[in-house]
Specification:
By secondary structure, the protein is of the alpha/beta class. The protein has helices at residues 2-29, 45-52, 55-58, 71-79, 91-98, 146-157, 177-182, 195-202, 211-215, 227-232, 234-253, 256-263, 272-284, 296-308, 318-321, 325-331, and strands at residues 31-37, 61-67, 85-88, 105-112, 117-121, 137-139, 167-169, 188-192, 206-210, 221-226. Helix 2 crosses helix 11 and helix 11 crosses helix 16 (325-331). 45% of the residues are buried.
Length: 332
């Protein structure tokens, strides 16, 4: 009896060792790709789906994701070869090009096509009107970043001068904006999800408007890399985009609950119900870029928003900074 148990035990241990070594061996055969995301948000749901559903692995890629918290830090990481690919606002590539970069940063696939922030009021407002912001204290996003530029663009669209008609606060670090509002700073704040919905659920604020719906289509968050990296690793980038395209389709086809379950590991502080609400909110306003091509029209809208905010250093060259050929090949 004891001998039989020992035999079964040895077989079981041997199986586990072989299985573990096989799994490690399979992992080692995957091509490693370093990816830096500018922030952590359900706004990037298709990316997390690609990771969780194994779409990258099926393409032979082992994608290592890090969060760099801010456009400037993300771009610095990309320029210093701390990452292969960056997920960040397209405006950063324009800033780098204006400084005379010899190795241009190329936007090769679009993840989101609208702004992802929402206007949150400290007090509950049943019939919100943008004029209510006049005379208020508005806690905006970091100066020069897409959230802040879109915010100012929308305010001006509603005949509000962000520098004269209200008290605009934009000197708080990106990662501390939500905490500042929760601590009592500002009457209104511009927040990403899931923070906006969490605040609403906890009674810390109330969502009254969507900057994404107000600003229209714009290449808000795109995947980009150095031109030299894309030229040397064209097949890798193609596999990367193919996995993302599958993820975009999956997000559109599944119900919000399934998408929420898939991205849940990346948002341990948010409950499933909140994640589901946020996924549906972003999907209903068309935030996820199903096409993934960064169009000339979208680029022009981006420059118009930057110019309106006084942040466009110079007219950029769309043909130089955007490459749609990879998405077109993958989605053909």
């Amino acid at each position: 009896m004891k001998a039989s148990f020992k035999i079964r035990f040895v077989i079981m241990v041997s199986f586990l060792l072989i299985f573990g070594l096989t799994a490690c061996s399979q992992k080692d055969t995957l091509e490693k790709v370093k990816l830096a995301e500018v922030t952590r948000s359900i706004f990037y749901a298709p990316l997390y789906v690609a990771l969780e559903q194994g779409f990258f692995e099926k393409e032979g890629l082992d994608v290592e994701l890090t969060t760099t918290w801010g456009g400037d830090k993300t771009m610095t990481t990309l320029l210093s070869d701390g990452t292969d690919i960056a997920l960040v606002g397209s405006e950063t590539s324009i800033y780098v090009d204006a400084q005379g970069a010899t190795d241009p940063i190329i936007n090769f696939a679009q993840l989101t096509q609208t702004d992802g922030t929402f206007l949150v009021s400290r007090e509950k407002i049943d019939d919100f009107d943008w004029d209510m912001l006049k005379g208020s204290t508005f806690l905006g996003q970091r100066k020069g970043g897409m959230p802040q530029m879109v915010g100012e663009f929308v305010l001006k669209k509603h005949d509000i001068d962000p520098h004269a008609d209200l008290e605009l606060i934009q000197n708080i670090d990106f990662g501390n904006i939500a905490n500042a509002f929760a601590s009592g700073t500002g009457d209104f704040v511009q927040l990403f999800e899931p923070t906006a919905s969490v605040f609403e659920k906890e009674g810390k604020g109330h969502i009254v408007a969507s900057f994404g719906e107000e600003s229209g289509h714009v290449p808000y968050t795109t995947f980009m890399a150095k031109k030299s990296y894309i030229e040397k690793n064209s097949e890798t980038v193609e596999k990367f985009v193919r996995a993302l395209h599958k993820a975009q389709s999956w997000v559109e086809e599944q119900d919000a609950e399934e998408v929420a379950k898939a991205v849940a590991p990346y948002f341990e502080d948010s409950d499933l119900e909140t994640l589901e609400v946020v996924v549906e909110r972003y999907r209903s306003q068309g935030s996820f870029a199903k096409d993934m091509r960064l169009t000339k029209e979208g680029w022009n809208n981006l420059e118009a928003i930057m110019d309106e905010a006084g942040e466009l250093p110079e007219k950029s060259d769309y043909e130089k900074l955007v490459d749609t050929s990879i998405v077109e090949k993958v989605t053909k």
